[in-house]
Amino acid sequence: MGNSFGCSASGERLVSAARDGDLEEAKMLLNCNPCLAKYSTFGGLNSPLHFAAAKGHNEIVALLLENGADVNSRNYCGQTALMQACRYGRWEVVQTLLLFRCNVTRADYLSGRTALHFAAVNGHVRCMRLVVADLVPSACFEAINNQIECERGDSGVKNKNDQSALSRFVDKAADGGITALHMAALNGYFDCVQLLLDLQANVSAVTFHFGTSVDLIGAGSTPLHYAACGGNLKCCQILLARGASRMTLNCNGWLPLDVARMWGRHWLEPLLAPNSDSTIPRFPSSNYLSLPLLSVLNIARECGLQSSTTSSDDVDTCAVCLERACSVAAEGCGHELCVRCALYLCSTSHIPSNMVAPTGSIPCPLCRHGILSFVKLPSSPIKEIKLQLSFGLCTPCMLHPRDADCPSPTSEIRKNRVSSVSSDIFCPVTCSPFPSVAIPLCTCNDSPCPSFEHRETTAETQEESPRRSQATSIEQDKIEGPRLERTTCSSMFWGRRSCSREHQCNSEINA
């Protein structure tokens, strides 16, 4: 059956190779037909890139991307390979996807979750530091020192402008208004909470009056409410140290103390009591914040990672790996490394520098001096990663090759999508798999969410009216019944709406 669809049989072989980590099989198939890199399984569930990213096969991910796979391709649930890698904590795959300039701000179709949400809910702090790398600029050594000397001066205003995009991304709400800080606090991942707070995450962000929060803790809940539900003492302490309030009431009238009592977290009562005199410890900044990561990422994108070994006496060899030629230099101490070792250092290091350095600096492996950014050496080769255009509607087939210069028929279709409307204007719950259904926004403040009973009463009064026939009312009930049931606040929550589709995609990967 697969042979009747052109290259679908070979595509399934590539999917199996990407899932099992068979690099030689993948190379052989892509050498015969590079278009197989854009293959996706029947139903549009997952592509080979999704399988390789979820399983952590970094070499196959790089091979697929070099053969023209779309780094931002989505599966049936709207999830990208970056989201799958963050879900399972494959930080090396996240690093490779960033080198190919993947879009970190994309959200899935089911719940509006970004890759940051997937990393936070599972506690993968290394993936989180990589996801925000393009939004945390690497400043020069002198600029950082000047900023430390005059934090309240003009540089503070510029810093606020630079962090606006970072704040919008970190505080992006998924279904129900749940941010990445809510997820990390609920599951008790202290390192993730600490990193998000250092990235200026909003400790006062509240959940919406509809969505998942209704069935979990309550609408209007802050990350402290979620931390109280999770029961992690350190998460509650650091949230209070960063400005969270014990006196914030959610829409149910519950304090964080009430949530802790409801879920049996009695050890949190002395800390969360409104008149508590408990001493809150001072927490240092997160060791997972990496300032020089963006600079070395840009150098790796320009020069590539495959630096050939050389035996020439004119070129210095990297003192860390002793294999590749030095291509970057650390600002401040001036020690030279190869770009691969520098990128690995910035992605994995979580040890603070012994020297006095700003928050987010990485200790040099040779002198322990704090590194704030890397610069490219003049002798470094320039090798840009060329991304091929992805095909449009059909699965690529070796029997019907297409010219890459030919305009895609989907260019005009993509212009008409709703992507032109900013996602920050509307609630993320509108990013549902049913775009044709008009979901009414709940505008309740202190009162409970409406149950749409008034619509039923009006329908009954209109049914009794002599102007409307009985057949018309029956057809109206058939149309409005499922819509009202789908859009009520009690049924519009994360798990029920997304579990079936997401379980189908995940079961395919984990098969």
UniProtKB/TrEMBL annotation:
Metabolic or biological pathway: Protein modification; protein ubiquitination
Protein name: RING-type E3 ubiquitin transferase
Catalytic activity annotation: S-ubiquitinyl-[E2 ubiquitin-conjugating enzyme]-L-cysteine + [acceptor protein]-L-lysine = [E2 ubiquitin-conjugating enzyme]-L-cysteine + N(6)-ubiquitinyl-[acceptor protein]-L-lysine
SUPFAM superfamilies assigned: Ankyrin repeat, RING/U-box
UniProt keyword terms in alphabetical order: ANK repeat, Metal-binding, Repeat, Transferase, Ubl conjugation pathway, Zinc, Zinc-finger
The organism of origin for this protein: Gossypium stocksii
Biased composition, class Basic and acidic residues, residue ranges: 475-484
Enzyme class of the recorded protein, top EC level: transferase
Region ranges (Disordered): 455-484
Protein EC: 2.3.2.27
PROSITE patterns the record matches: ANK_REP_REGION (PS50297), ANK_REPEAT (PS50088), ZF_RING_1 (PS00518), ZF_RING_2 (PS50089)
Residue ranges of every copy of the RING-type domain listed in the record: 318-368
An example Gene Ontology molecular-function term: ubiquitin protein ligase activity
ANK repeat start-end pairs: 44-76, 111-132, 176-208, 219-251
Listed InterPro entries: Ankyrin_rpt, Ankyrin_rpt-contain_sf, NF-kappa-B_inhibitor, RING_XB3-like, Znf_RING, Znf_RING/FYVE/PHD, Znf_RING_CS
